[in-house]
Amino acid sequence: MRDPYYYPDTEILRNRLGIMDEGKLRVAEADYVSLNLAELAREDADRTFDFRELCRMHYRIFRDIFDWAGKPRVVNIEKMEAPLGNISVEYSDVSDIERDAQSVLKDMNLYGWKQASFDETVKNFSGYMVGLWKVHPFREGNTRTVVTFCAMFIEAQGIYIDSELFKDNARYMRDALVAASAIFSDLGDRRKPEYLYRIVGDALERGKAVGEDAVQRIRSAGYPAGEQQVRKVIFWDRKERRIHGADEIRQLLRKKEREEPGLER
User: Are residues 238 and 147 in the same domain?
Assistant: First the structure.
């Protein structure tokens, strides 16, 4: 079956920019995606982490490039992976995409994150991330979408993560996801999740340090460091791309108290 996502007689994805050169398309995609990811990272929004939200996030990231952004793929796919000796991960069948993704998301949302130890968080968060990635819901952009979605999910649980580490080590991250997904119907279980555990553990350690620093600054401002305050300060830092001092935090939280009388104190 001809891949409907390609221009005829090419292996170039149909795109909204009309670019017919693979290298130029890659550059343009990286530029738009980088801007959209930065915009998402600064948003402090309430989200329901379900399949619909995963599709919305793909749309937000790739809407400038692909008309099918936000829509599950309609073809089965294979990608030859160097870490697997040029064989493909067994991605979900096109007819099972939503079911498989929802199964992972249900378990991820039900897991007791607040009771988990750090090591348990690393292993289980990595496991859910790779489970969702292995579905490969979209024709293109799965790694960026799934990693962004999962990072936002874990921060919604009050566990902060340095997702910039994933972006700065994008090739390692993708290869780690591939290695952790290597279970086959004919070759058996060849998974090596330790590479993913390593980078996820480092990102969570850095996120923990960010959270602890925010707590210290909030307390120096004379406020108790509840979950809401910590989240507001961290996202304020991200939005303005700088670390705010105690005096600035005091002014922010006083303003929030006036605007949101129910804010925890």
Answer: no
Provide the number of structural domains found in the chain.
Answer: 2
Report if residue 72 sits inside a domain.
yes
Q: Please report the DSSP string for 96-165 in residue order.
A: GHHHHHHHHHHHHHHS-GGG--HHHHHHHHHHHHHHHHHH--SSS-HHHHHHHHHHHHHHHTT----THH
Beta bridge partners of 184: 188
**Residue 113 falls within a domain, yes or no?**
yes
Residue 6 pairs in a beta bridge with 13
Supply φ then ψ for residue 6, to 5 degrees.
-95, 150
Dist CA 72 CA 25 (whole Å): 21
| In a domain? residue 194 | yes
For residues 161 and 111, give the distance between their C-alpha atoms in angstroms, rounded to a whole number: 18
Whether residues 84 and 188 share a domain: the answer is: yes
- Measured from the Cβ of residue 161, the count of other Cβ atoms closer than 10 Å reads 25
CATH number reported for the structural domain that contains residue 170 in this entry? 1.10.3290.10
Same domain? For 83 and 190 the reply is yes
CA pair distance 122, 77, nearest whole angstrom? 29
Judge if pTM exceeds 0.85: yes
Q: Which residues pair with 183 in a beta bridge?
A: 189
> What mean pLDDT comes out for the span 11-20?
96
Q: What is the pLDDT of residues 128-160, one digit of tens each?
A: 999 999 999 999 999 999 999 999 999 999 999
Instruction: Enter the DSSP assignment of 2.
Output: -
% residues pLDDT > 90 (the chain): 91
pLDDT higher than 60, residue 97: yes
Question: Considering the domain boundaries, does residue 228 fall inside one?
Answer: yes
Residue 255: give the domain boundaries.
221-265
